[in-house]
């Protein structure tokens, strides 16, 4: 089977024009079929402030009322996604922007209200790869933002890490899938305060031990859960590192395995 | 050759939730390959006001500075386009949203500055149909908003009527193309003040005569120029009418021919 790379780039890189430009130029040189998934960064919060829409975060997660969903859709699927697509085109990478509604690629259910009502937030239920593989077969690169839909006309805000891992799982029936998370650090750190303490390899056993010892930063835990879930569902390889890891592996980064 | 319908829906319908919902439901029932092109409506102007970005229109055309381009990208490619795609999915029409940057489908040049500097406005230079036909072959319907790009990373604001006619011309090499403009009237009017004065058929000769007699409303003239340009470049048929014309032709509408 051919190998596909699903590459997620985090919000801190999206927020930095120079870093994003460099990343997109490197992404364009990645050979073979590939998919980009991007986070949202701070632009949505800025627009909400400009529009006097209250920003409500609980444990780092955005409560998404109807106005906030509009803002997210405008910023993620509009401004960020389309500028990334235009930049990739200028780098001769033929890209098409996606939400999960496009091509009915990612179907979610609105998160049930328990203690907290997250509003228009979607938990992924199903991935349909038909549109994606048709484009990949024509050397076209899908670029996903962090929005899905419920098949009943409702867009839903969805975690970008989860979108990347669910796409990777869905595509693992057709490809060897390699899932790469790019963020501002060089990999998963053994000691949160020491950027040089990158863990090279981490299997499930090591992960569970380190988790019990509270090794990981709060934001890293759900990312790692996503990664091991992806590995257990057929994804071949998961890598976490800084953006240069997509074109150059003569450096530190973390490889996860079961 | 198979027939494809390129259907443009105007801003007045976009601005009216009930009318849009009805239109999208009808659009979903149109058989065979089809493409939707949508205008922007008044939402971009509203957002500009919310964000204190000055709105500058000359002869009904928006002067597009960098802030305005951001707003247009957010509203057209984000909020409007993605909600249309989600609605079409709920009607079992498998749609994918496009700007001209996506799939490198519509390449424009920034309009040269003469008397007026229109800013980031693009005049269409080239249409690439590869991504579109790959999707159409998989029963997927492209949905275009009125944004193109210059292949150098710059998005450009582009007239939606022009996008529809240029797509129709580009696709006329692969399909019999039928171009349908839907707006709030029943067709081209012989007398601007009489909604019942719909012209049934109009060839180039009649058009030129009526133009000299100042028959047409200001907004209608560039639309008609687009239409005759499309016909002269290989488009089989151009129809102008209200939205129901896409599924029901037992009513008044205007057919244009050379």
From TrEMBL, chains A, B:
UniProt cross-references to InterPro entries, sorted A to Z: AceGlu_kinase-like_sf, AcgluKinase_fam, ArgB, Asp/Glu/Uridylate_kinase
Superkingdom in the source lineage: Bacteria
GO CC term, one of those recorded: cytoplasm
Domain Aspartate/glutamate/uridylate kinase, first and last residues per copy: 4-242
NCBIfam families: argB
Major subcellular location class: cytoplasm
Enzyme Commission code: 2.7.2.8
Free-text function comment from the UniProt entry: Catalyzes the ATP-dependent phosphorylation of N-acetyl-L-glutamate.
Name by which UniProt lists this protein: Acetylglutamate kinase
Reaction catalysis annotation: N-acetyl-L-glutamate + ATP = N-acetyl-L-glutamyl 5-phosphate + ADP
A Gene Ontology BP annotation from the UniProt entry: L-arginine biosynthetic process via ornithine
GO terms assigned for molecular function: acetylglutamate kinase activity; ATP binding
Pathway the protein takes part in: Amino-acid biosynthesis; L-arginine biosynthesis; N(2)-acetyl-L-ornithine from L-glutamate: step 2/4
rRNA-binding as UniProt keyword: no
Marked site positions, Transition state stabilizer: 8, 223
HAMAP family with a match to the protein in the record: ArgB (MF_00082)
Binding site for substrate: 40-41, 62, 157
Designated gene of the protein: argB
Subcellular location: Cytoplasm
SUPFAM superfamilies, per database record: Carbamate kinase-like
Family the UniProt entry places it in: Belongs to the acetylglutamate kinase family. ArgB subfamily.
């Amino acid at each position: 089977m051919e190998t596909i790379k699903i590459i997620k780039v985090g919000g801190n890189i999206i927020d930095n024009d120079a870093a994003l430009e460099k990343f997109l130029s490197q992404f364009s040189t990645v050979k073979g079929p590939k998919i980009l998934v991007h986070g949202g960064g701070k632009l949505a919060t800025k627009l909400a402030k400009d529009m006097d829409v209250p920003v409500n975060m609980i444990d780092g997660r955005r409560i998404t009322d109807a106005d906030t969903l509009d803002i997210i859709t405008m910023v993620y699927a509009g401004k960020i996604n389309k500028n990334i697509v235009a930049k990739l085109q200028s780098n001769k990478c033929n890209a098409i922007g996606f939400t999960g509604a496009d091509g009915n690629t990612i179907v979610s259910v609105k998160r049930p209200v328990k203690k907290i009502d997250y509003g228009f937030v979607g938990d992924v239920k199903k991935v349909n790869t038909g549109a994606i593989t048709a484009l990949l077969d024509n050397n076209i690169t899908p670029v996903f933002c962090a929005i899905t839909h419920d098949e009943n006309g409702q867009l839903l805000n969805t975690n970008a890490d989860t979108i990347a891992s669910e796409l990777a799982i869905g595509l693992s029936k057709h490809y060897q899938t390699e899932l790469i998370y790019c963020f501002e650090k060089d990999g998963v750190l053994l000691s949160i305060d020491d950027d040089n303490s990158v863990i090279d390899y981490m299997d499930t056993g090591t992960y569970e031990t380190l988790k019990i010892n509270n090794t990981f930063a709060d934001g890293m835990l759900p990312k790692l859960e996503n990664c091991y879930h992806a590995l257990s569902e057929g994804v071949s390889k998961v890598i976490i590192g800084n953006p240069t890891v997509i074109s150059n592996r003569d450096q530190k980064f973390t490889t996860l395995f079961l």
